[in-house]
Amino acid sequence: MACLLGAVTLAILLGCQTASGPRFDAHATTTAKLVALTNLTSVAETNRLNPDWLAPPTNRFTLGPGDTLELEILGDTATRSTNMVGPDGKIYFYLLPGLDVWGLTVTDARSLIERELLKYVREQPQVGVSLHGVESRHVWVLGSLSKPGIYPMSGPMTLLEALAVAGGPASPPALASLTGGPGAAALPDDIADLSRSFVIRDGQMLSVDFERLLKKGDVSQNIYLRQDDFIYVPSATAKEVFVLGAVAQARSVIYRERMSLVGAIAGAQGTIKDAYLSHVAIVRGSMVEPKIAVVDYKEIVKGKASDVLLEPGDIVYVPFTPYRTLVRYADMILKTFVQTIAINEGARAVSRNVNPVGVNIGVGGTSPGVSPPP
Q1: Going by fewer Cβ within 10 Å, which terminus of the chain is more open, N or C?
Q2: What domains does the chain contain, in order, with CATH numbers?
Q3: Is 33 exposed, middle or buried (0-12, 13-18, 19+ CB in 10 A)?
């Protein structure tokens, strides 16, 4: 239940709206020359790694709905029981009415139970209380991992510890079993794409370099996680281009050899009426050192400029308004991208039967919205 609420909450935070409008004809540029991108510009990620993220949290674990406690009045084994904190934050034990323990530490909960029991017994009771299970706090560790999933978080946990719990990057046989596909031996050894892996916290992508952490042993990237942090490690074998923004169906499009910008946008059912076509962006490279190119899509569809070739993993963004600064534009595109992945993969982690969704965000401060699945 807590996992489902987490996925639903994430979708609600991103909003809900649809987009529709006229589209450009993808066949208008069938004879246009295809050229490689030459104006890619490196941009520095603005949300740099905060040194505070490397310090273990000082706050103690507090109880919440779904957590379970083992309780016993010492000296009376008949009172031993396992009790769950209910959705209202209350726990029921022995003769006591519901006690509100939501937000209390285990020690504080013990003191409360002993104090309330004194109303029903003559001598001050001593109660044994221990944490049996955690359901109120989780971290999401998904993607190309041996055991992706939503894991409880009962105490301080680092990024490396979370990846270890999830079995680390998937090996070829593990990935084949996860996807149900044969031919694991034909898959390359480097299954996980560490350069495009990311962590989301409170809707923001943290600038953690997974390659430095896992390949070079750079512990300066080994941050401590917080409740509901979302970790995603994409597959290095996936061949797709992501088309977001002012398009009819924001989605990933299967990459085919010599795929062009026009072809990718056509795969997302074209642009919508309010799209600002002169500043279409293409983001390429790692999440912490991305490169961005801005092209005039209006000139391309008119046949006045050459269509451009894309590469697997490219992010194509069609804005609603002109961008102001390149760095902020790139940041906004990456934020849109990681939120899209979080919604899709989080929903799949809760239910295997949901359809993917897309996210639309305007450059000029427009609220994010979720478009219906294709």
Answers
A1: N
A2: 2-50+239-371 (3.10.560.10), 68-133 (3.30.1950.10), 137-233 (3.10.560.10)
A3: exposed
